[in-house]
From TrEMBL:
Catalytic activity: D-maltose + ATP = alpha-maltose 1-phosphate + ADP + H(+)
Organism: Streptomyces aureoversilis
Pathway(s) annotated for this protein in UniProt: Glycan biosynthesis; glycogen biosynthesis
Protein's name in the database: Maltokinase
Subunit structure: Monomer.
Maltokinase N-terminal cap domain residues: 59-171
Length: 533
């Protein structure tokens, strides 16, 4: 559950097998790994990657942004290597090496069976993965004490033999180099740096690495810009670049407009560039909706005005997205497909979480109702949406107190094609309604009407710009049910003490008279740990 959050190389000479190279750069060329190498190039790649494999095999699974936790890494493939800053043996200046590597992992049971499979069928098994990760590796002979926590290790053999390899973003000197590359657009091997026309990025902004993210890494520069670096990357434009740029074109001020970005163009890895990082204006002094909601709950303050304003802001963003990008109409085939996908997710979750099974039939009724409306001729519009909207993705700015929305990447675990597909705006609305329920649980307001009032106010604010989401109760109920089912599966696997929160919603949504047509307060038990869900 993603709640709340790129690299390069250069030229140089390689030492592919010796255990101590003469002073010189790390790599003999700036390159992307092509489909076929010259024999010497293959040996060089093998020497570099082979020396890093023992270190990465231990370090990578410990990173919060690594998506393959719980499964062993069976191998690595080097996709591209770029030396952004050469390091010479004995030099006082560190080197910066940008790697794109694929991590091979075996398949794993999904914990369920297809909806149409017989009871005797074997459980679903996910195919193995070979996700591509972006790594920024600092290289130094002697690591300064303040960078000791960032140490990955010292390779044995290869061009980096004996040198300290560490997380480059932790080193302000290397993080500053990234900003310089974005200030001066251009290309370095497979890496392409771009800047929005007319944008001037100041030099010398001090970097600060933000440590509280899960799926990505971010660096703040001088309280002026924030660079978001995507760790798991794939061919195609990331929605966190595509959508804010499209919104900027409409004049929408609710989303910080990208100032610069960088990509990788890798032969044989797909026809589209991989988005590696996006630089956007930083909003200093702002507070996210999750923090604000918990602060209000701590003093039993009313949150309805804030929720109403947030609903208004969300509707404005949805309207701008519909203006900037194509929309589609969901008719019977699309609605039946949507309902069937929700049903499959429900069945898989119920097979994996016994507590969900008594409610399966009642919850499925929400999806059946949606499909039935499609068969009766009902249609809905679908468009590009945020895709992972919750209180942690909304910032109230210190300057004017207005709401801004951030992090348009969508749920990183979902394929890019799915995250880029037009969807009903009800999905974003449902995500925010569920977030209010989580805030009420953590804020010990489970016995009050706090969540009910916040949910209603959000819908009212949304309705002041577009139609009130509650006017489409079947569509909203289906999406809120789908979200709650996802939460049940996530909490059961990762945070069992949080399971009562989504289960309270499950009980409400399973009631024939309940559902998303009238926002109601859940009555969940409070989780033991207080973390942002």
């Amino acid at each position: 559950m993603s709640d709340a959050a790129p690299s390069r190389r250069g030229t140089g000479r390689r030492d592919t097998g010796r255990k101590g190279g003469a002073p010189g750069p790390l790599l003999s060329s700036v390159r992307a790994a092509p489909a076929a190498h010259a024999p010497g190039q293959e040996a060089a790649d093998a020497g570099l990657l082979g020396s890093l494999v023992p270190l990465l095999s231990e370090w990578l699974p410990r990173q919060r942004w690594f998506a393959g936790k719980g499964r062993p890494i069976t191998g690595f493939t080097l996709v591209a290597a770029t030396e952004l800053l050469p390091h010479h043996t004995g030099a006082t200046v560190p080197g910066l090496l940008h790697l794109l590597v694929r991590a091979q992992q075996p398949g794993a049971p999904a914990g369920g069976r297809p909806a149409d499979a017989p009871a005797s069928a074997a459980p679903v098994v996910h195919a193995g993965t070979d996700d591509c990760y972006q790594l920024l590796l600092g290289v130094h002979d002697v690591l300064p004490p303040h960078l000791a926590p960032a140490l990955i290790g010292r390779p044995v053999g290869g061009p980096l033999h004996g040198r300290a390899v560490y997380e480059g973003l932790a080193d302000p000197r290397l993080a500053s180099l990234l900003l310089e590359r974005l200030r001066l657009p251009g290309r370095l091997g497979p890496l392409r740096f771009s800047r929005e026309e007319g944008v001037v990025i100041g030099a010398g902004l001090a970097p600060r690495l933000i440590g509280a993210e899960q799926s990505n890494s971010s660096v703040v520069y001088g309280e002026t810009y924030i660079l978001k670096l995507f760790r798991r990357v794939c061919p195609g434009t990331n929605p966190d670049l595509e959508l804010p740029r499209a919104l900027a074109g409409t004049g929408c001020a609710r989303v910080p407009a990208p100032a610069a970005w960088f990509e990788a163009v890798v032969p044989g890895a797909g026809t589209e560039p991989m988005t590696l990082g996006v630089l956007q204006p930083y909003l200093p002094g702002s507070a996210d909706g999750w923090q604000l909601a918990l602060s209000a709950l701590a003093v039993r303050a009313d949150f309805t005005a804030s929720a109403r304003a947030l609903g208004h802001a969300t509707a404005e963003v949805h309207g701008a997205l519909a203006e900037a990008l194509p929309t589609v109409v969901l008719r019977r085939p699309q609605l039946e497909h949507l309902a069937a996908a929700m049903t499959r997710r429900l069945d898989a979750a119920a097979d994996a979480v016994p507590a969900l099974r008594p409610f399966r039939a009642a919850l499925r009724a929400a999806y059946d109702d949606l499909a039935a409306l499609g068969r009766a001729g009902r249609t809905w519009r679908a468009q590009r949406i945020h895709g992972d909207l919750h209180l942690g993705q909304a910032l109230r700015t210190a300057e004017d107190g207005r709401w801004a929305l951030i992090d348009f990447e969508g749920e990183p675990a979902r394929p890019l094609a799915e995250r880029s597909r037009p969807q009903p705006t009800a999905r974003d609305v449902a995500g925010m309604l569920r977030s209010f329920d989580y805030a009420a649980a953590v804020g010990r307001a489970s016995g009050t009407s706090w969540s009910e009032r916040a949910r209603a106010a959000f819908c009212e604010g949304y309705g002041s710009v577009h139609g009130d989401p509650r006017e489409d109760p079947q569509l909203l109920r289906a999406h809120e049910t789908d979200k709650a089912v996802y939460e049940v599966l996530y909490e059961a696997r990762h945070r069992p003490d949080w399971l009562p929160v989504p289960m309270a919603a499950i009980r409400r949504l399973a009631e024939p008279a309940g559902g998303a047509d009238g926002p109601q307060a859940d009555r969940p038990a409070r989780p033991q740990r207080e973390q942002t869900p």
